[in-house]
Write a structure and sequence with these properties.
single chain, 12 strands, alpha/beta, 10 helices, 12-stranded mixed beta sheet, globular
Amino acid sequence: MPVTDALGRVMRYLRVSVTDQCNLRCDYCRPAGASQRSGRGHPLTLEEMARLCRLFVALGIDRIRLTGGEPLLRRNLVWLVREVSALSGLTDLSLTTNGVLLARHADDLCRAGLQRVNISLDTLDPALYARITRGGELSRVLSGIDAAVRVGLKPVKINMVVMRGINDHEIPEMIAFAERYGLVPRLIEIMPVGSVGLAGSVGRCGEERHLSADEMVARARLGDGREWMPVAHPGAKGAGPARYFRIAGSAMEVGLIAARSRHFCDSCNRMRLTAHGVLVSCLGERERVDLKTPLRDGATDQTLMDWIRTGVSRKPRGHHFEQGAAGASGWEMSGLGG
């Protein structure tokens, strides 16, 4: 029977962070000086992650996304993909990656059962990319996108975190790039999580850089003059929070993820499992449930599922980003799995 929270929302979607480590240092995800760890001790083993995924699916979760940090840094990730993709009842298995290592692994991941991929791409300017990521090489990401398309991962979505005064001028160019290569672009508002949400953490990636979804659409229309038409269905395959629009005269769709200006809390159907076995019900919630301790203490499947139900029951009505509550959690986005 599907697991529901206190408000009757049915949980269908689980994001699993396989590592809190990353090979990039994007300011909005891991600001300078931020902790690189999301928990104490050793992270979950892949076998432990596979067991928990099985239990979540038994509780009605039918979509799982593997995240990080950067998930492709985790050794033997292909094994986990193979194990999870074989779970009866799972309908969708996807991956979010920065794309730097994707060209090397795309074929093996696809063969193991990965269905689709989201790739972080905040700019098409190599110099700006290096600045945002603090040293990343854009050419490696573009190679990863090519590989994902070539091996048949579909759809390939590109996630652009839009930052005022940094990359907002590139919205039309990013949409044109996606249209040219058959990708699904998604424009994302900065979320005040971790250090980005703390008082005084403005400047490069805080409040000064926030751009609302309405402003994003306005910039896109100024770029090419085409109208954006909301689509009645959920849009390109997925279970996430994006609202999709079809651009007039084109078959492509553009997603907007607006956690702040158009929050989607009433229909939220997702949970997050960190690399250290902590169940997170909301990015803006301080209270979390530790699954690693009972798991390693020999808990039965039934006991672990009871703990999962407890975590789901504590899911709040909504976040309080506008009040700065998320910043008090002390975890960066890289440790929460996005």
